[in-house]
Amino acid sequence: MNLFEVYPLFPIEPVKASGSYVYDKEGTEYLDFYGGHAVISVGHSHPHYVSKITDQLSKIGFYSNSVINNTQVDLANKLGEISGYNDYNLFLCNSGAEAVENALKMASFHTGNSRVLAFEKGFHGRTGGALKVTDGPKMKSEFNGDINTTYLPLNDLDAVSDALAEGDVAGIIIEGIQGIAGIIEPTNDFLQGLRVLANKYEAVLILDEVQSGFGRTGDFFAHQHAEIKADIITMAKGMGNGFPIGGVVLSPAFKASFGLLGTTYGGNHLACAASLAVLEIIENESLLSNAKKWGDYLIENLSKVNKISKITGRGLMLGLVVNGDGKALRSSLLSKHKIFTGGCGNPNILRLLPPMTIGKKECDLLVEAIKEELK
Which of 105, 149, 210, 263 has its CA 20 to 30 A from that of 334? Predict the structure, then answer.
């Protein structure tokens, strides 16, 4: 059997990783400033992470959601404590797309409406419902045609208000920071305005924090920078540091009932152990402040590079707008300097999404490499 080839691949096979570095089968060291699509939050093979999963595996790795699983309870308690959402409830699943599917479903259950407001260039996943609220026509098939979605310009409150006034909206879904679009931020005023409008028209405000959550921006969730609370939050990627897990955080206004949501693998013992380890590392190593510190350092130093016209994002979720060919820069950083970075829909933007454990050494290596390539 052959693989179904849908991914363009770099000719590199990582076989080992530690901290902010990965190593190929020849032993070549690569600096990871991409984290495998923002997944590696607390560093590759962190000792506490490895120990927590190994210990759990030696006891029990999986049983279904038909029995008590206190690793889920422990995870929910720690997540509430660190995120500031301790009065909310947690539903566990397997991925970001699955989290979004369940969030949309809950918004429709709650309001009795079916229309969703989403934003231009937004990305929310590749499954049926998640793809329907994603602004990406090339990814869609006729199968993705059932959810009534209106795409609006980001940071345009008047457009949102006009759409909500029609009275048929179940929810508004927005990324804390748009990732695949190129690290595009909703303004604080816009997020605050969305909160007011959602309250006024009784629509559910869904914050998709799949890429921007779990501390990456220096706040636990990116939307907390605007000092608002969401009705529903979706999570994945950095939540498991590479172990598949997703989650939906729901306000107390949403009432659970048996059979309302469900999953086979979601919230399994190993996934919960992985995510709990991530939270413990974030807390014990002050990674929120570390993300902010080194994000600020990168912005300060990369802003001095002539051919970088703009830097977007916060913390360790940054977009470099390059005067020139950003795709070529990314290629050179990988081939010549052995540094992984990320691309996006805009070929002139380079995405930086490193582990939150990076320090000055890693930042300086990246800055000097970019200076050399853009001199």
Answer: 210
